[in-house]
Amino acid sequence: MSSDLLTTIKSLIPDIPLGDVNYLSALLLVPVPILLAHLIPYLRDSYNQRRIPGPFLARFSDLWLGWVASQGHRSDVVHQLHNKYGTFVRLAPNHVSIADPDALQIVYAHGNGSLKSDFYDAFVSIHRGLFNTRDRADHARKRKIVSAVFSQKNVLEFEPSIRLYVSQFLNQWDRLYDKALKNQSGDDGEGGWFGKDSRLWLDCLPWYNYLAFDVIGDLAFGSPFGMIINAKDSAPVAVSQKDVMNSYGSKNDAVFVHIPAVQILNDRGEFSASMGVLPPSWRPWVRMLPWYRKGGKAVKNLAGLAVAAVAKRFNSPTDRVDLLSKLQEGRDDEGNLMGREELTAEALTQLIAGSDTTSNSSCAITYYLAANPRVQEKLQKELDDALGSEDEYVSTYDQVKRLPYLEAAINEALRLHSTSSIGLPRIAPEGGLTIRGIHFPQGAILSVPSYTIHRDKKVWGEDVDAFRPERWFERDNATLQKGFNPFSYGPRTCVGRNLASMELLIIISSILRRYHFVLADPAKVFDTREGFLRKPLECRVGIKRRQ
Ligand code: HEM
Questions:
Q1: Do 55 and 68 touch, CB atoms closer than 8 A?
Q2: Among its keywords, does the record have Ubl conjugation (predicted)?
Q3: Which of 70, 243, 328, 398 is the most exposed, having the fewest neighbouring CB atoms within 10 Å of its CB?
């Protein structure tokens, strides 16, 4: 700052003597560098964003987006801003949100060279896994190994595990239902309630969480957490790596605590997603705030799950077919296997990326089917016609992989709910990116919000807010696919998509064949809270057995 400017600023501050030092003047000077630090980048406009409209504060500071993210409804807020300002909205001094399906092909495409932004650093707990690896070469190496693990051929080998836990899930619901039917009324003592319309009334969200965690616990960690059987959000974790080594070296030393893994993942998504939008230099300070400190500790505990599972697998090899064994066998181009640290990070990544994504999506699909009886009945008819009166009510993938209405109903719910709804931030590569005639130079942060893209009337029609699977048969499929982004796009697209699709088909078809759903309170909005994912808060339904 020039000395002239400093003198002018000083002259504006009242000179109130406080002993030898003029404390007040010094204090009043503090905001000046902060103001300048925000004003200068705005005036300089290195990323060509000054002309992009958006909230006033977002032009100067990341705090606006940090605040919005911490409130849990980022996608709704950004959507309203797009309705107000149009295709381009400035979300932060260097971050533009672009609500245009064509921009997906530009911002996220293969070969354009854009990388994940430092937003993803806030998601690193022990080591970087596939999801939060930002370096291109590191990512390409990991991706090669992991995508082979998720090939359709491999994923088919995981089907028996999925069917096993869907069967456990339905056995538990049958047990609760029978118990409630016998007692005819009153609290079933396990969170459900039997009554009106001879239905069992329960919140299906925790059950979908138990199911998704048990499936992924089995596949990625070698054994389920036992959440379905225990009807509880509780996973056993060794308290430190030392204890893990001891515990698997000599069984008697095992020291385990039980942690609420679902709750921890929810908290982690929220604090990482709101921390990630702040500048990296602020994060160590923000981490000291009680909420973030608690979240950080919880994530370390969660990492203990992966450490323990991988340690166990190294100490007692097995011929079991699961994600962990496939990851263990995977080799990079040089023929190298993953080391223990890298394997642990990948197992943890599969747990984090493959659990609540599936459970929240299953819950949202159930909600939309319960809220739309016509669609539910049409889907149940398709399932009955295709599967007949088979006693085994857990579907096989083969039975349900080509049922058009089932697929359309799942896609329609994924569109409307948008489990991954925020614009995933990418850095414009060397040479920049040009979108609708606006050039964004190298270094500009760009994102395309799936929630808004999924409500684009040009793609989906005028009734975008209606749950209507029929639209998937009425409109041009290529246009729909271009605007449908539940699993993202390009080199960072969901690597577990084959597994996720198989899980959703088996879960939804099996449960819908067995039970009929109604909403407990049809007038109530489907409440959500968003961290990295858009998560339902609950889904209270009345279930009645169909067969
Ligand atoms: C309905 C369920 C799912 C949805 C909606 C979903 C969605 C997504 C999305 C949108 C991304 C891109 C994230 C980003 O770029 O920031 C992603 C990445 C990823 N997903 Fe999924 N996912 C689902 C299930 C799964 C499952 C079952 C697994 C594995 C068990 C998985 C593993 C991953 C991994 C490892 C990545 C990072 C890929 C990379 O960066 O190369 N996901 N997922």
A1: no
A2: no
A3: 398
